[in-house]
UniProtKB/TrEMBL annotation, chain A:
It comes from the Eukaryota. One of its GO terms (biological process) is mitochondrial respiratory chain complex assembly. It comes from Astatotilapia calliptera (Eastern happy). Residues 60-140 form the POTRA domain. This is POTRA domain-containing protein.
Automatic annotation (TrEMBL), chain B:
Belongs to the metaxin family. It is found in: Mitochondrion outer membrane. It comes from Astatotilapia calliptera (Eastern happy). InterPro entries: Glutathione-S-Trfase_C_sf, Glutathione_S-Trfase, Metaxin_GST, Mito_Protein_Transport_Metaxin, Sam37/metaxin_N. This is Metaxin-2. Involved in transport of proteins into the mitochondrion. Pfam families: GST_C_6, Tom37.
Amino acid sequence: MFRQFLLGQRPAELSMGTVHARSLDPLPMHGPELGVQADDIDAPEMDQEPKQEVLENKDVVVQQVHIDGLGRTKEDLLTYEISDVFQAKNLIDVMRKSHEARQKLLRLGIFRKVEVVIDTSRGEDALPNGLDVTFEVTELRRMTGSYNTMVGNNEGSMVLGLKLPNVLGRAEKLTFQFSYGTKETSYGLSFFKPQPGNFERNITLNVYKVTGQFPWSSLRETDRGISAELSFPVWKTSQTLKWEGVWRELGCLARTASFPIREESGHSLKSSLSHGMVIDTRNSSILPRKGGLLKIHQELAGYTGGDASFLKEDFEIQLNKTLFWDSVLSASLWGGLLLPIGDKPTSIADRFYLGGPTSIRGFSMYSMGPQSEGDYLGGEAYWAGGLHLYTPLPFRPGMGGFGDLFRTHFFLNAGNLCNLNYGEGPQAHLKKLAECIRWSYGLGIVLRLGNIARLELNYCIPMGVQSGDRICDGVQFGAGIRFL
Amino acid sequence: MVCRRYTNKAAEPWPENATLYQPLKEDQILLSDCASSLAVQAYLRMCGLPVQVFCRANAEYMSPSGKIPFIHVGNQVVSELGPIVQFTKAKGHSLSDGLDDVQRAEMKAYMELVNNMLLTAELYIQWCDDSTATEISRPRYSSPYSWPLNKILAYQKQWEVRRKMNAIGWGGKTLEQVYEDVSQCCQALSQRLGTQSYFFNKQPTELDALVFGHLFTILTTRLTSTELAERVKSYSNLLSFCRRIEQTYFEDKSS
C-alpha cells in the first residue's frame, strides 16, 4: 500500500504568471530573476486526510532523492539544495523539507517548474519506513528573447533582450539587452554566477553603454563602462562590493544650454570602488505593510585610476507600520554627501538631484537646488524625508481583486539640496542644510505594478519654494521604482 | 493684435569680461588649434576689443561647433574666426568696412586659400605623418586624461582626421607634396603682400589676422622636423609681416 503525495503548484496563485514592469533605469538587470514572486508563495496548507494522524507519528527515513528532467544542469549544483531532505525524521518533516528544497531549486532561476513526488521505497534494500523523494523539474529553455518598443521623452526606441539562463550548467546567467532609438543607442551585457550551494553569494560582471538625456539640466550623458560586483550575505544584511570603470561623455543637449553646463562637457574616466549594505525586513518592496529598510552605500573614486576623485555616501531608511483599519504609516529618510578629494571640482555626473514625483512631490523633476539660467546643476549634499499614510480606496471597490492594487495616500515630503563649502566645519554644513527647506503635502492614488514599480497620481501643494526651483503644483503624475 | 518687442542683442556693447577658450597651452594645444586661436586673438586686438584667454582641457568639447577657439561674450558663445568676424560686425566693429566689393571678394578668396592649404597642411602633418603623430600629437592631445581614456581619445581623433583627409583627397599625398603646397601658398601670399605693411592698404583686416596666426605659429612651434618652418622663412616679407604684427599688437607679450 502506498500513498502518493504530490506537492506541486497551487494553480490559483502561481499560474497567474508574473507581471514584469519595465525598469525605467536603462542599465542591465541586476541579480537573479525569479520566475515566481517570493511573496506570492505562502506556506502550503496541509490537506487534512483522515489517515494522516497515523502517519504523522511514524518515523521515516528518506532513502533516495532523485531529480528527473535534468539536461544541461550539473548535478553537483543541486546536491546542496536538496541535501536537507535527507535530514527529515517523520512524514510532516519530509513534506516540509521537500517544499523548502523545491523553493531553493526555484530560486536558482533555472527551472520553469519543479514538482515533488514522495513515494515509499522500492527495490531490494527498501526499508519498511523508507521513502523516495523525486523532484521532477523542467529546465528553462536555453535562450529566451524579448522585443519591446518604447516611446518616451520625444524618442522612440526598440529594445531587444536576450537571456541565456543556466548557460554553463551551474545557474550562471547571461543577459544581453540592446536598445536602438531615434536618438541614442544603448546596450548591456551581464554575466551572473552564483556560488554553488550558496546562491546568495554571487558575482556579476557587466559591460554596458548607456545614454541618457536630462532636459532639466540641458545635458546629455553617455556612459561606457564595465563593472564587477560581488554580493554576499552577512548575518541579516546583504553586502555588495563593486568595482566600476566608466568612461563618461557629457554634452549639451541644446545650443541654449547655460555656460556652467557647457563647462562640464567633455570626457572623464571614473574608476571607483563601492560598498553597499542592505537590511530589508519589509514584506514587500512596493507598498509594504510592515518592516523596515536600511540601505547604506559608499563609493570611493580616484584611487584605482581615472580622473574623477571623490568620496560619496548615501543612505536610505524606511519604516512601515500597520495601523487600524488596514492603513499603513510609512516614514522614510534619504540623504547623501559628495566629498571631492583633491582640487578638482565635482562633475555634474556625480552630483545629487532632488525633486519630482518620485522624491519631493510638487516640484518638477530634479528641478531643485543650484541652477543657472534654468539648468539645474545638482548638489553635493542633500536630505529628503517623507511621511505617508496609506489607506485603502474609499468605498473599497473590487475587494480582493483589482481594487487591492490601488491605495490612497496622504503625504508630507521635505528636503534640501545644496553645495557645501568644505572649508567650513560640520556645524556650518548642518546649518546650511537646515535653512531654506523645501516641503510639500498632498494626497493621491497609488497603483502597484507587479512587485517592482508603482504609479502615482497626486494633488500636491509645494511650500518653502526657493527662487530658481520649478514647481508642479496641482496634479502630478509619477511612475517609477524608488519613491520617497 | 499682438505687439512684439524685439531686443536687438547685437546692439549691446562689448563687455569687459569677454573670454576666449582654448586648450591648455603648455601641454595640450596642437599646432592647428594654436594657429586658429592666435588668429582670433590677433583679430580682436586689431579691433581693439579686450578679451581674456582661458585655457581648459575640454575646450574642444565645450565649443558649440567642436572647433576652437570660441569666445564667450555676454550670453553668447561663438566659435571659429568666420562666425566671430560676423558677430563683431553685428556689434559695430569691423576691419573690412573700408574695402570695396572687389577687394572684399579677393580677401575672402585668400582666406579660403589659407584655410584650405595652410590649415589642412597643419592637420596633415600633425595627424597623418606617423612620426609627428606618435611623438607629438597623440601625447599632447591626450595629456589631460588618464589611461586608458587617453589612448582611446587620441586614436579616435587621429582616425577622424585621417578620414577627413581621405575625403578631401589629401589621403594619398606624401609629406613632400604637402610641403610643396605650403610653399605655393606662401608664395601666393608673399606676392599679394609685396612690400605693403598689410594685405590691403595700411589697415589690417581679418585676412592679416588669419595669416599672422598661422605663420607665426608655424615659425614658433617645434615639430619633429624644421622643414615646415624653413619653407615659410624663405619668404622674407612674410617674416617681417609677422614680426610687425607681433610688435604692434602683442607688445605686452614679448616684453
